[in-house]
Hints:
By secondary structure, this protein is mainly alpha-helical. Helix content is about 60%, strand content about 0%. The protein contains 16 helices and four strands. It has helices at about 10-30, 40-45, 50-60, 70-105, 110-120, 125-140, 145-155, 165-185, 185-195, 200-220, 240-265, 270-280, 285-300, 320-340, 355-365, 365-370, and strands at about 230, 235-240, 375-380, 380. The strands form two sheets. The chain has a two-stranded antiparallel sheet with strand order 1-2. Helix 8 (about 165-185) packs parallel to helix 11 (about 240-265). About 40% of the residues are buried. The model is unreliable at about 380-405 (pLDDT under 50).
Amino acid sequence: MSKPQARLAWPDIAKGISILGVILLHACLAVPDGMDSTLAAINRFLDPLRMPLFFLVSGYFSGKILNYSFGELFFRRLWFFVVPYLAWVPVELWLKFRELHANEGQEMPELKTYLWHIFFGENMFWFLYALVIFNIVLWLTRNLRPTTGLLVGFSPLLLVPFHSNYFLLGSAILYLPIFIAGTRLRPLISVHAAHYRNKPRILRSVLMAMCGYGLFFFWSVLPADSIHAIPMPGTVMLGYEELHIVSMLLIKLLVLPAGILAVAWLAHIPVLSQALQFLGRHTLPLYLAHPIGNTIVFGYLALGSGMVIRADADSLMSRTTTWVLILVVVGLVGGLVFHGLSRLPIVGWSLTPPSLWGWWSTRHAARTTATPSNGAQVLGKRVGKPVGKPVGESFGDSYGDSMARRL
């Protein structure tokens, strides 16, 4: 009897680094002078890796959906993104709008404002919306050749002149290619991570990363008015913003190979590895909890009390760095609270909704027993027919390969 495969460590570490960087970023953004702090400068080094690692791992564990029907895709995957999104986005929006109303006198918005933010994904939980879209796009490429499927991931670049009008379009430009690459290039990624000590591989990856960070630094010092808009057919213009986002995609692609080797190496560092894996296995509650915690603890209690916070404040409790660290702790503790909520009946369903797969498969048995498409391929191997527990029964494995482990 074969032993069950051990859970890969490096994908969880990649997610752990990603969520830790996100929590720190949002803490720095929330606190006055936070983006000028030393912590923000350190976190800025993760900018080309923070979300790319998350979406790469999400795609890495999404190969099964290439053999799904659309019903399977929805009930075994998308359902577990849609429910937390619709349950918690209105809560986070209301709390934030309430903070702005109390502290800055802004009017509370009408219902249509909430609907707009939800429908267009302009909120703190946009990544769930993006995962829904990315999974659908990946599923639509299931009958394409692997290389053609990879090219589809870059198709949002055709709409780059309009990305500033739609937040999710910008996210698709930056992260859809990486998500699809995670699926289509999984065998190559696995080999790359397994050979994290191979010196030629390290050298190539480091050189690519140096080019990426060099380009990243170049854009950080380049004045926006130094690039003149390039006219395109019709009324479309390509200017600083358009060239910047295309360059950001290139930067992320250049840095990712070194990032994969780094997280694979971290998997062998005692204590640190276990800590990052723990965070990576609890990404969803951490992501949902930390902006809500920031609003309540900092927006309501600190700013609401009239506290003045500055980088050079005399009082320790009025300093920027102190509050950035407090909000990081709040985010981590909030993740534990939300993890506890996920264990409760009814309320917990907003985080880990009950599976409807059994109900749907019973009503649509003919569909679930149909022969899977012959076109589902990744570079290097065929994607087998899904077996075992359906993906999506809980939110464990990077929103991907095994949601069967509860957070």
